[in-house]
Design brief:
The complex is a heterodimer of chains A (348) and B (269). Chain A has helices at 19-41, 48-56, 60-94, 107-122, 131-155, 162-186, 191-199, 207-226, 228-234, 238-243, 248-270, 276-287, 292-316, 325-347. With 348 residues, chain A is mainly α. Chain B is 30% helix and 26% strand. Chain B is built from nine helices and twelve strands. In chain B, the strands form three sheets. Chain B has a six-stranded mixed β-sheet with strand order 6-7-8-3-9-10, sandwiched between helices. Classes of the chains: A mainly alpha (348), B alpha/beta (269). The interface between A and B is large, with 31 and 51 residues.
Chain lengths: 348, 269
């Protein structure tokens, strides 16, 4: 065999290709998050000068706005974005498809249906719901998402075929979406609340949401990071991964379960926020050469910063009013995808 | 778990064998009643026309497709009875068409140690040694820190070959390991397979399209469209003219100072 020309490249740590670059990248993401957090403290219905005054000379009302409304909102947005980024990166790895996203398996439609049913049950609007109600809605979203995932898996007859899983996901999503529309037609009183939900809104995030989503994020990180080497193996093809000793059913069940829990949690808190779960892992992969362990750490940080930025934008563009955050991410994400497509066509 | 196979009464037991193996997809039967034995220290080449079931045979032997009937025995024990990880440490398989991946070369080769490490894949010293050895043997060290998707076909194939070698399995199944390689690197691979079999006492089974390369193997498994034509040494294969039977057309083999070469017939048929 040819002489070893590059013996030196196999140094001590060969698993982290470019550790310094990754560290720089992660630091950048965290710094951006800090900036956005501070920025969002100054953004709202009152002017920046007023916010500044509030910070320097706090009174009861201003500290309520700053520390009970604005801070949990932006931190909650970070948690939701991070969870979406994690679920998106996992979905893309599991399905070996860069266009996979967290809402793929009908989870979003299932969660939406669950929320619609729960709204009828409690006969209330999102704004009126106390945190216990929010928790109930999250549970309803989780149950809906879980049921949708189970339905998808049942339709595709198990978790062995990636393509049939994806197709079943599309079927389930459209059928459940139709069911939700029917409910909306017959119960117009929940229409406004559902609209907020379907467009995605970070306006109702509280400290309870931060704790809830943050907890689920930590919970979801465990199987994701634990199975990251399995996802690496999957990039070589399903047969090769199996020959390496990976159990396809195990990794699929574990990660699908994690994805539906994560997605349902985010849907229960902010509704449907498009593109964050798709964009975050893409941005990471385009700027860093990464394996899945690195991706599953970087994508949540990226997704968190993305949704924080979108949240800030949604409050800033039409201030003092605000846009639904889902509309902002859809616009920005769509523009990004078009740009990405254009660049790919140009390079090809 | 039983680590060593029970001693067989009739001489050393084969590293890998199959008995009355039948394989098929849907209603189509691809392999029908195939019985073969592969011993350690031998390099066997599977040859035959396209679509005769070479890949299917290797997949079945690797435990990737469940046989319709028949049994496969790995190191004295039914293949399906080995645990996933135990099997993965004893049997390495190399796919015919390997997909590109964003991982770096060394990360891909490191995946060969998937079934060796702990739960979180913490790499040990023995893993590093195996990775380095496999990459040196395949001449793929220069690709260590490059993304596999940016490598040329030949460089990529050598990285994947190193991945299979890094398993350090006693049984090595390779589906067309010389595809995408230019002639000098094909030579390297053939030398490598020989060395694995004769030097490291590995049981090597490879599907090989190039007849001249396949004729360098110790044993040939000759498959035709209608099933297994024969299984034996190169001399037996040539004596029985199995290759012509398999390809349903005369196959000319010349002897160049002990090296058998396939001579393409350029006369109009």
């Amino acid at each position: 065999m040819s002489a070893p020309r590059a013996e030196m490249v196999l140094g001590v740590d060969t698993s982290l290709g470019t550790p310094t670059r990754l560290a720089l990248w992660l630091t950048g993401c965290l710094a951006l998050t800090v900036l956005l957090t501070v920025g969002s403290l100054f953004t709202g219905t009152s002017s920046i000068a007023t916010s500044w005054h509030w910070l320097l000379a706090p009174d009861a009302q201003s500290s309520l706005v700053l520390w009970q409304i604005r801070l949990p909102r932006t931190l909650g947005a970070w948690c939701v974005g991070a969870l979406l980024g994690l679920c998106g990166a996992t979905a893309q790895g599991l399905f070996r498809n860069p266009l996979a996203e967290p809402y793929l398996l009908g989870t979003a439609s299932g969660a939406a249906l669950g929320v619609a049913i729960s709204l009828i049950a409690v006969d209330s609007t999102i704004v009126e719901l106390a945190w216990a109600g929010k928790l109930g809605m999250t549970c309803a979203a989780c149950i809906g998402a879980g049921a949708a995932t189970a339905l998808t898996i049942a339709l595709s007859r198990g978790v062995l075929q990636t393509t049939s899983l994806l197709l079943a996901g599309i079927v389930v999503a459209s059928v459940l979406g139709a069911a939700t529309s029917l409910i909306l037609l017959t119960k117009p009183e929940i229409f406004r609340a559902m609209q907020t939900f379907l467009l995605g809104s970070t306006a109702f995030l509280s400290w309870a949401s931060v704790g809830w989503v943050g907890g689920v994020l930590c919970l979801c990180l465990v199987p994701a990071i634990g199975l990251s080497r399995g996802l690496d193996a999957l990039t070589l093809g399903e047969d090769t991964a199996q020959s390496l000793g990976l159990s396809l059913p195990l990794i699929r069940i574990a990660l699908l379960g994690m994805m539906s829990l994560g997605t349902a949690t985010t849907v229960g808190q902010v509704g449907i926020v498009m593109f964050v779960g798709l964009m975050a892992p893409h941005l990471v992969r385009e700027t860093l050469a990464v394996n899945h362990r690195q991706l599953l750490v970087a994508a949540p940080l990226c997704g968190g910063a993305l949704l924080q930025a979108a949240d800030l934008l949604s409050r800033w563009i039409v201030r003092p009013a605000e846009l639904p955050v889902g509309a902002v991410t859809a616009l920005v994400g769509g523009a990004y995808l078009v740009f990405s497509l254009w660049r790919r066509n140009r390079d090809a | 778990m039983l680590e060593t196979p029970p001693p067989s009464a009739a001489g050393p037991s084969p590293a890998l064998s199959c008995v009355h193996l039948c394989m098929g997809y849907g209603v189509r039967r691809v392999l029908d009643d195939i019985s073969l034995e592969f011993s350690a220290g031998t390099w066997s080449a599977v040859v035959g026309p396209n679509g005769c079931g070479k890949s299917t045979l290797l997949r079945a032997l690797a435990g990737l497709r469940r046989p319709l009937s028949g049994s496969i025995v790995l190191q004295g024990r039914e293949l399906s009875l080995w645990s996933r990880r135990e099997r993965a440490r004893r049997l390495a398989w190399l796919a015919q068409d390997s997909t590109g991946t964003d991982l770096t070369g060394v990360e891909v080769v490191g995946l060969g140690r998937f079934a060796h490490g702990g739960w979180l894949g913490a790499r040990q010293g023995t893993d590093d040694a195996a990775i380095r050895h496999a990459m040196r043997a395949t001449g793929s060290l220069a690709s260590a820190q490059r993304r596999v998707s940016t490598l040329s076909g030949g460089e990529r194939q050598r990285v994947y070959l190193a991945r299979a070698l890094a398993v350090e399995a006693p049984v090595l199944l390779l589906d067309e390991p010389t595809t995408h390689l230019d002639p000098p690197h094909q030579e390297d691979v053939i030398r490598l397979l020989r060395d694995q079999a004769h030097g490291c006492r590995v049981c090597v089974v490879s599907a090989i399209h190039d007849l001249s390369l396949a004729l360098a193997a110790d044993r040939l498994i000759v498959m035709g469209r209608s099933g297994l034509i024969g299984h034996g040494t190169v001399a037996e294969t040539l004596a029985g003219d199995w290759l012509s039977a398999a390809f349903e057309t005369p196959i000319h083999v010349v002897d160049d100072n002990g090296t058998r070469l396939w001579r393409p017939s350029l006369q109009p048929a």
